From TrEMBL:
PANTHER family: LEUCINE-RICH REPEATS AND IMMUNOGLOBULIN-LIKE DOMAINS PROTEIN SMA-10 (PTHR24373:SF387), SLIT RELATED LEUCINE-RICH REPEAT NEURONAL PROTEIN (PTHR24373). Keywords: Leucine-rich repeat, Repeat, Signal. It holds the Pfam family LRR_8. One of its GO terms (cellular component) is extracellular matrix. This is Uncharacterized protein. The keyword Cytoplasm does not apply.
Length: 414
């Protein structure tokens, strides 16, 4: 085993005579430099791991003789730049360069990686990458997380790209043509950036996109047809923004959406029209907003909804009726609202509801049929309310088949 040692130096002839070697693992050593011909005899090598060393630069063409190399891991080194001829290899499929000190990559650095499919560049100091990826037409996965990128690089020629991750950067604007040519993209990560506004039809070039993560930005409002063209989108995360208003038709075109996270925003009102274009939702998270107005029929179109989270809002409501039409509901979170008099959870039967959280809701009175019409109810969180011990014990006795959870117990997970 050569991995996880204290190897500081590798000689040019260290691997001579190993022409049949398939894998070489040199990770977790202290190698600072590599002779230019050190791998010249390893024509059969398919996997080379140099992760977690102290490499600061690469000799030109050092990997050119590795004619069967498919995976190269240079992650967690001290590389500062990638030159034009540093990475020449005809069959390389997967390249790891994450967690280095990269601040510059030559625009033709990946031009001779004709088979490259996966490229990992997260955790560097990259700012400008305008034309770096123009010649990597085979690329399917591109990870640029945790850099200092302000502007999306030119990716128009990456027709095979399926996953693009730009989380934790400094992107403050998305242009109408940023995603042009990426017809096969399935996952797009843009969480923890500086985005303030999303234009109408911004994502129209991404017909196959299934996951879009825009959490932890500064988006204020959603305009009409923001997500038009994303007919295959399944999951949309807009949590931890500054969204106050959900414009009419802002979710138009999202007929396949099953998960929507709008938690930790500043939304104040929910009407039936708010979600009329996404009636197929299975999970809807509206926790930690400023919602004070909830129309009686706001959720009646959700025939498939299983999880609804309204935790920590400003709701002052009589629950009875608001959730009657969500017949498939499994989990309902109402913690941290103002209910006070809890007459009945629902007027009509919710046959599949298993978990209900009404803790910290200022409840000081419950009706005699409070959990009636909930034949499948298994778990209730009812802590931090104002029922005295006698009333609470009577409630537990009345619904002996229901487990009342305290704050130390994990809630029911869908």
């Amino acid at each position: 085993m050569l991995a996880d040692n204290t190897i500081r130096k590798v000689d040019a002839n260290s691997f001579n005579g190993l022409d049949s070697l398939l894998e070489l693992n040199l990770q977790e050593n202290k190698i600072r430099e590599l002779p230019s011909e050190v791998f010249s005899q390893l024509a059969s090598l398919t996997n080379l791991n140099l992760k977690s060393n102290k490499l600061k630069n690469l000799p030109n063409g050092i990997f050119i003789d590795l004619l069967n190399l498919e995976k190269l891991d240079l992650g967690s080194n001290q590389l500062e730049e990638i030159g034009k001829d540093d990475l020449i290899n005809p069959k390389l499929i997967e390249l790891h360069l994450e967690s280095n000190d990269l601040h510059a990559i030559h625009e033709n650095a990946f031009g001779e990686l004709r088979a490259l499919q996966k490229l990992y560049l997260s955790g560097n100091n990259l700012v400008e990458l305008e034309n770096v990826f123009e010649e990597v037409h085979t690329l399917e996965v591109l990870d640029l997380d945790c850099n200092k990128i302000k502007k999306l690089p030119n990716l128009k020629r990456l027709a095979n790209l399926k996953q693009l991750s730009l989380n934790e950067n400094f992107v403050d604007e998305l242009r109408q043509d940023d995603f042009e040519g990426m017809d096969n993209l399935i996952l797009l990560g843009l969480k923890v950036n500086k985005l303030k506004h999303l234009d109408s039809n911004l994502f129209r070039h991404l017909p196959l996109l299934r996951v879009l993560d825009l959490a932890s930005n500064n988006v204020n409002d959603l305009v009409t047809e923001t997500f038009q063209g994303l007919q295959e989108l399944r999951a949309l995360d807009l949590s931890k923004n500054n969204i106050r208003k959900l414009g009419e038709g802002c979710f138009k075109g999202l007929e396949s959406l099953t998960m929507l996270n709008l938690g930790s925003n500043r939304i104040t009102e929910i009407t039936k029209e708010t979600f009329e274009d996404i009636s197929g939702l299975i999970s809807l998270l509206l926790n930690d907003n400023k919602i004070h107005k909830l129309n009686q029929n706001a959720f009646e179109q959700f025939e498939r909804l299983k999880l609804l989270n309204l935790t920590n809002n400003d709701l002052m409501l009589k629950i009875d009726g608001h959730f009657d039409k969500i017949k498939n509901l499994r989990c309902l979170y109402l913690r941290g609202n103002y209910i006070r008099h809890l007459e009945k959870i629902c007027g009509e039967e919710l046959p599949y509801l298993k978990f209900l959280d009404i803790s910290d809701c200022n409840v000081d009175e419950v009706g005699p049929e409070v959990f009636n019409n909930l034949p499948g109810l298994c778990f209730v969180k009812f802590t931090s309310n104002y029922l005295d011990q006698k009333e609470l014990m009577a409630l537990k006795d009345q619904y002996g088949n229901v487990t009342f959870l305290d704050d130390t117990q994990l809630p029911y997970v869908l």
